[in-house]
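Input for the complex:
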Amino acid sequence: MAAVQPKSVKHVPTLCYNCVSGPDFMTVKVVDGVATEIEPNFAAAEVHPAKGKVCVKAYGLVQKTYNPNRILTPMKRTNPKKGRNEDPGFVPISWDEALDLVAGKLNAARAKGLVDEAGLPRVAVSLGHGGTPSNYMGTFPAFLAAWGPVDFSFGSGQGVKCVHSEHLYGEFWHRGFTVASDTPNARYVIAVGANVEVTGGPCAVIRHADARIRGYKRVQVEPSLTATGACSAEWVPIRPKTDPAFLFALIHVLMHENGLGKLDIPFLRDRTASPYLIAPDGLYLRDPQSGKPLVWDEVSGTAVPHDTAGAQPAVAGAYRLAHAVVVDADKERREYSDVEGKTAYEMLLQHIAKYTPEWAETICDVKAATIRRIANEYLEAASIGETIEIDGKTLSLRPVAVTLGKSVNNGWGAYECCWARTVLAALVGALENPGGLVGTTVRLNKSRDNRHLSVAPGEDGFMVQYFNPTSKEEWQSTPSTRNLHQTLVPIVGHNGAWSQALGPTQLAWMFQGERPDDWSMPMPTLPDVWIVYRSNPSISFWDTRHLAEVAARFPFMACVAYTVDETNYMADVLLPEATDLESTQMIRMGGTKYMEQFWDYKGVVLRQKAVEPQGEARDFTWITTELARRTGLLDPYFGAINKGISGVSPLKGEGYDFSLDPASEPAPEQIWDAVCRAASVTLSEGREEHDLEWFRENGFFAVPMSRLEWYLTPTMEKLGLRYELPYQERLLRAGRELGRRLHEKKMNWWDEQLSEYTALPEWHDVPGRWIRNLEKSGAKLEDFPFWLLTTKSMQYHAGGNAAIEVMHEVAQNLRGHAGVIMNAKTAAGLGIAEGDRVEVRSHIGATYGKASLMQGIRPDTLVIIGQFDHWATPFAKTMDAPSLNTIAPMSLDLTDATGSGADIVRVGVRRAEGMAA
Amino acid sequence: MKKPLLRASSLASPKQQHNWDWRAATNFIAGGAGGGLLLWAAVVNASADATRMAILLGLILIGSGLTCVWFEIGRPWRALNVYRHFATSWMTREAVVALGVFVAGGLAFLTGASALSFLAGILGLTFLYSQARILAANKGIPAWRHPRSISLMIATGLAEGAGFLVCVLSLSSTPVAFPVLAGLIALIVVRAYFWKSYLGGLVADGAPDATLKVLSGIAPRLLVVGHVLPALAVVAAMAGMPGRAGLSFAAGIMVVAGGWFLKFTLVRRAAFTQGLALLHLPVRGQGTAGAAAKPGWKVAPGVKAG
Amino acid sequence: MKRYVMSIDLRRCVGCQTCTAACKGANATPPGIQWRRVLDIETGEFPDVRRTFLPMACMHCANPPCEKVCPTRATTKRADGLVAIDYDLCIGCANCVMACPYDARSIVHEAHFAYGDTPMASEAARFDPDRIGVSMKCTFCVDRIDLAARTGQIPGVDPEVTPACVNSCISGAMEFGDIEDPESSVSRLLAQTQHYRMHEELGTEPGVYYIWDQS
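Predicted:
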């Protein structure tokens, strides 16, 4: 096409991990050293569920590479004043100067002690969206491991923008940090806000497309008609944040209108705690000798420990027990004689009796008949009794699932939703069985690459859990992180790779300003050094204008920078990193990962340098190694790399040794060569060894994996374990203990959150919390008559593509991008026409954009797609796009017990007169 | 020129065409009138000076239209490629005819020979016809592709030509002849008829709502300015009201102005694209296909219920 | 006799614009110019609303109105069914743009680039001055189809000779192939499904089939 014939054309295999639903395969066409095109990698078509394809985001990577707005040399700030209205005065400096500057600050912090006087780490690191940075940051995790305590509290959205309660409770109940329908076998999916056609990546898209052709039914329950709703058989426009009521009513129909006889009795009996007997005080009745929870054995007609061989536990009913004990918070033991014990199922049955479809209709604005029909369709599609053979093993086939989306499964009401949908799966035996509801990864437990290995026998017949302790002796009364994750959130634990980062990240930001009056812990400090990587919290969190002001107060901030952005505008040093097409890293692929990434293969895939980095940008592994050298941490750094941190498997194991000698200061290429060899040897169980060069040529290495690994139930069966459902005695006790600890410290500011620790969740007025928060601030409800929600965009996903012109261009083909989506009739009533510039105002501020009128949205709801409202990022700042984040408050009132909030805020909307763009 | 991004909602409906701007419109506006003028100049064959003036004006009109187009096309220095597709392209044919128009018209102007004038007139009519066919061949623009657009374009070209001729004659020493004025009235009536017929046909056969809105929006003004007022002026002139030349001139100008207003509207403002049609909405897993849809159209010919 | 056509399964399409972006990459189209795009169509009234994603591009008609009106013969219908444009002949008169009922064609009069007047390296490497001022549209990735004619590979089967949009589609919505070959994947799929072609009443005989249900 171009006049000059190219001298060389290469197709370089690599990967895209621009969202959590990666990695996906691609090739980069490189013409005479210039990346020109992104194409699928059809060589991976067999191993990849999405047939070697990447989604639209990857097609922006060529522009991402050559974007003239990139930071291409290290820079330092010359203006000591920081703020939105202070030009940072960034000037280019050498890499030596930049690295010395950062290392100098790190060394100074280290010299003072790794934690400060408040007991908090002196170094904080913020990473961007959904764990995707770890797939780009090379050996940085090894540096962090070598460093020691690091605070990940200052979130860029995790905790509030992620599916937080799903992460925590999903992993608790079934090792499902992310939870999906088993789409390849699904027949009926109720998607409550789950926008999987947009966020699930190519694997989810092709699977759901195949399922549609197969004739599955998906019911989308969501206030607006998203792309996923569009591609569903039915759309149910539910009132925002009333999803728990809808789900409770589904349970009601199953249990009260159909009854136990139509449910999966063997599953409830053997794989759940349904038969456990509950004392009148709400605790498990236990065997006085062994302390084990009791069940009613229908064979012997007596109460026996839950694991008694040969017993036939009763699922339903109430039974009299001669003698039993309960164990309350702080191991307080009480004796009971001649006590009535109701099975957990019975407790649930009685609990759910009041939540009829007719009741739910008044809450959700969904007709009772619709709720009833959906529940019955779900039950029928569950085809209880049906089986499927997978790799020679017969499993139950239960092709139904309820999936939850962002803002449904985080913030107030999310516990209820997560619980209800998991109970819905358990009632029909669809939990972790083919066709049903499956967890796909673990992050709060180990091993992070095989959730089956994270399951071991724990207390009371359930799998082991590693809660943050709440006992008097062990409770962390002085927080070790600024988000107080160990102090406030038992369920998030402290063992998993992500436990800390999934604490209440908004508290870290909020408490830098005001703290509750009855705060009796050390005052939170600012970290001496703050490192920000692939993250822009000043756009992606809430109350972003205020957040940027807090960020401006951090004493030293080093940002790995792509362009100038709203967060690194406050930075002291900018470090330009080699981006996606310019850098090298090996990561795991396949097996079971986030979202719908559960494959028939598992393996490793190389992101490789397809083109030379632009300007002075450097591979992050090089940057990291230099920092390790300048902070004197080369030994522990390479020690961590040798252990497999940052890599895929340990560099030394049985029959192989590729470990690196710190003394030789191996270059990044040598590091990845060793990682490649170790990965291929371990994956192939010693049969094959491939070096970096081989991976550069071939891109990936995969070995087949049985689909049995998709489902946890066979493992639970093998270990004789039960899912900790439906009754939440453990959570009840943890909440009581946590309450006692806080109250002992004379703190009551977390009391509202403690109310979430219930054994059987009750409906409480979830949307009302936002209304009360509004009124508490002195605002009048009538001034803010709408709910404002947000939804994701595949082109931008969480917003990381905002500086990429082509993403903006193609996104404009879809309704609502860079605008304010509102109901056409509502708009007409307000004199707002398509394309009019409107002001959307909450009680903390306003955001502006063009009205995009649709029929597919509730009249009481507005939606703003993505996260925009940039003021510093080149290109993005010219988009004039609104953002919910600008006007959504951070508030303790709106923080649930897991520390999460939700993307929802009450707003008013009007034409922005005279402000036409 | 940076093309502005269209909003998704606009993409879903017929869009106003922007590829033929005022320059292309000028070709239809001026060129059509010029063709009509050449024809009537030959037919009326008034005084030699007047005829030559009319021929010159006709050539200027056609020439300026073509010049405008030349400035609009993307590759003006390849303009001669326009002659490569006589078999089916009315644009090629228009260009061929234009050559003849300029040769015959030029010679007629120079020599005053009535045979050449007549030839130029016939070619002027052919030019007008070619232009009408260019528009009608554009299947992408429902307002143009309607078969009745051809008669409308010809009718208005002829009326405009007559209007111009009356203007030329009214400026000359001899008064405008009675039959010429009668002819102008006839052409006004004919154009009004074809306009009504065209609009009715468009409504009946279907067109984008936006097209119909624009066209019906101009109907009253077009009727008054382009038809009623000039007809009254002509009648007054014929009835012997004082200032016959002025009345005739005014009538001629109004006929031309009405035609140009009509053509500018048709080529620019009412020219909305076909848009899209969904004969069936897809079945997403289960349930029924949705009803057919044709955004931006009220009646949807060719669309059957889903 | 061959006729290459495309089928688009509307049941699968999720409107993600991957094909739009892949096309822009494969064909190096300037900002704002999309040889194909996926439209987002909403029908009905709240709460009975449908939203349909409709990929649109050149339909490579068997009776192309663009070809008929083209005064230069720059636009031609090839023996294999592709409607092609010879950029060296086209004068950019836009008659074909007006003739196309699918809004498939566009003309760029001045070079412009993603981030202003200066091309990025990737844009500079592929900038083609021949495409300024002339009519452009989806070519069905004609270079690949021509390559197939030389190598014997099969468009729609071998990715190397299949249009970029089809290759990129993550929902598997598109098939491409020779409709005259009853064994081609596109022929087989069309035999099993209900489909329509857009604006057939205009006599264009389009080469893109929209699938909406099973047969």
